[in-house]
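Proteins fold. Shown next:

***
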Amino acid sequence: MIRSLHICNYALIEDLAVELKPGLNIFTGSTGAGKTIIIGALGLVLGERATEEIIRTGAESAIVEAELNCTDGKRLKHLILDESNNLIIRREIKKDGRSRAYINNHLSTLGGLKEIGDNLVDITSQHRQKGLTDSSTHIQIVDRFANLETDLKELADLFKQFNFKKTELAELTTKQDNWKAEKELLEFQIKEIESATLEDDEDNRLEREKLQLINAEKIKTACQISESNLFNDEGSAAERLKAAAMELRKIAKYSDQAESLGQKLDELSILLDEAGVSIRELTDSCEFDQSRQEIVEDRLALIKRLKRKYGQSIADILTYCDLAKSKSSKYENLDEVIIKLTDDLKTLQDRMSAKANDISISRKNAAARLEKQVIKHLADVAMKGADFKAGFKREENEAGPYLIDSKRFAGDETGIDSVEFLICPNPGEQLKPLVSTASGGELSRLLLAIISALTDCFPRETLIFDEIDTGISGEVASQVGKKLQNLAQNRQVICITHLQQIASRGEAHFKVYKGKSEGRSITKIKIMEGDNRVAEIARLMAGEKISDVALDNATQLLKEGQS
């Protein structure tokens, strides 16, 4: 509900503040006093667009601030609400055309304000139609009237699961189209690597062997020269070592150090013999082998080719092979997975379609009850003979997610229906969409009748009616007043009226009037209580010349309106 409204420098308003009440708030005043201006200012904080023309002459900016309370904070859970679910909305319009909006002192967009308005307030006047005239809300209203919240949640869950699995199946099917070529490639790569029977560090060993094969003659010649120098030539190292050892043994009995040195020379002699064996083995192994060299070079070429394709080392190549095997194995059961997923998708579609069909039937049954109630309320507000219908449509679509009676239908998480309220204000005319019917008071009464039928399920917490009394009087006006009063039992209603039958039923009554400030006309407002309210009701009944009879009648009317 709207707790308060503060307006500065807007049109004829210089500085005006009003605290609204729960229940039925009535605004009265002479024509031109500025009642509709207040509704226009309220529209600004609810996201309507504005131009600099609305700024009071001589002022630099217009400011409108409203304090609202949302009884169900979950509806606006993403907004910054205080502990009491209060919202303070501030809108500033500058002369240069700039506009700023704030929600609880946080900068906001017009979209943020509009969302609040769409969730909390419904304005109906000759120039503003929100809420029920938006056909996108009609299916929600029918669903609330039919108490379909649980069924809709179940359908939304099924719809979500269906779309998830449908996407998953589409992705797998695309993979299936490509997986054969990819699997063949992987299998080729695995076979190519495995057939090479690579060993760790094999490339380094082969490079060393290749180097030895290429230089076999050099190695053999060097070994032969080394062996001759050590063993075969006259005065070889072996002979000299033995001679030195013999001389040391001759003096060993005279010197412990000579004995020790002799033992070391014996050890060197043994090591020299072992080196000679190794040299001869190296000489024997270094025969040039053309066929072996070709094998080594071919093997190295193979490893080099595999490195270019699969990694910088043999370890990298073997790791790639393991990964390819793992990836290839995932394709083995792809066909089975697709078959199972297709079955699951069909089961989900059947469940989802059955639920959507049940919801559609429930909607139509509830809509039929709603139509009867609205037509009854229309008769109460001087629209006897008017017709009202909730029009249903569904779209056949070959690609639609819903399958009912062998036909496919488009739809979303709410099902297969689109709903639009149709109205025929006068007998003999065709039913037309609510948004394209009458304007002003007639439209207000149409909506009043609809909302009266929807009183337990209409979501808006504040309803605003301007010019609802156009073209009515007497008993019809009294009926309109009663309906407004009934609506106000569980929500806030704000009504601008010229009729005493309506004004007398308000819980709070405000008078809008023109005053003077520094020689200029300004719009003012005051709450009417006690004798002042009686006088205002009498003015509505008799005009500016108020008699005692008019005052007595006003007093009686107020008693009846508040009983």
User: Anything to note?
Assistant: The first helix runs from residue 35 to 45.
